[in-house]
Amino acid sequence: MQVPGPFEYERATSVEQAVGLLDRLGEDAMIVAGGHSLLPMMKLRIANPEYLIDINDLAAELGYLDVGPPGAAGTVRIGAMTRHRDVLESDALAAVLPIFRDAEKVIADPVVRNRGTVGGSLCQADPAEDLTTVCAVLGAVCLARGPAGEREIGIDDFLQGSYETALAHNEILLEVRIPVRARTASAYAKVERRVGDWAVTAAGAQVTLDGDGPEPTIAAARVGLTAVNPDPEALRALSDALAGKPATEATFAEAGAAAAAACDPVGDMRGSVDYKRHLAGELTIRTLRRSVERARNAPEPQGV
């Protein structure tokens, strides 16, 4: 039976205490929330913290989901200790950022969704994790706190590579902030071997439309890929290239081909390289199409 190495355990009762413990114990201390990613890594000795700081008592302080008044423009705020289940079941969130419900429906199983947290998913920075792609597509901003106070980190800077984030060893993630824009919608699609499994390939998209009529123009877009080792610069170029183009099947197909070329998947028991590239292209097309459909039918946020 695989067991973690020896470690000391601390239970934080406030954000300030958690930050203080991280600062005092140094780089050998790690935060545990839901634990569904960290504990398996500890059992495999991939992660070997000397100190484990449990922040589950911070759920009352950091377990919130603030969408704002119905139909209002602004910023969605999701606390780092918000459980996946709460995100999945929020109709208010699904109304303005439907990509979250798309993704949460295919994240693991009810047991994991009941305990796993939004902050834990982002801080794990697993390239096969769905919410990292979701937040990247939405252009989220992460709010962190350390001994020197709070700072905002754009998601592109926060995610620095596989299992690496911009958080210092004595910082804790407080919340994720996501802007709500007019005529904007999002979508996520995933192919998995069985329900609850890691993605073979997944894709997300957010689209802002400009103009009316049967073929509106794409004013802005962001595309993201999961589990296929995408090239961030290539995805950024793909997204930028969509601006100003008509929201048509030809545009979606062009973007799908670019997405397939923008990734470098590894062939394994889940599928070959060619299969995963094909999925990257096809799922990009589907999420762009669904985002456009949703944006065309979305109510205009007040105050925009």
From TrEMBL:
Gene3D superfamilies: 3.30.465.10, CO dehydrogenase flavoprotein, C-terminal domain, Uridine Diphospho-n-acetylenolpyruvylglucosamine Reductase, domain 2
Domain FAD-binding PCMH-type residue range list: 2-183
UniProt KW keywords: FAD, Flavoprotein, Oxidoreductase
Keyword set includes Flavoprotein: yes
Pfam families referenced in this protein's UniProt entry, alphabetically: CO_deh_flav_C, FAD_binding_5
PANTHER family xref list: XANTHINE DEHYDROGENASE SUBUNIT C-RELATED
Protein name as it appears in the record: Xanthine dehydrogenase family protein subunit M
Organism expressing this protein natively: [Mycobacterium] wendilense
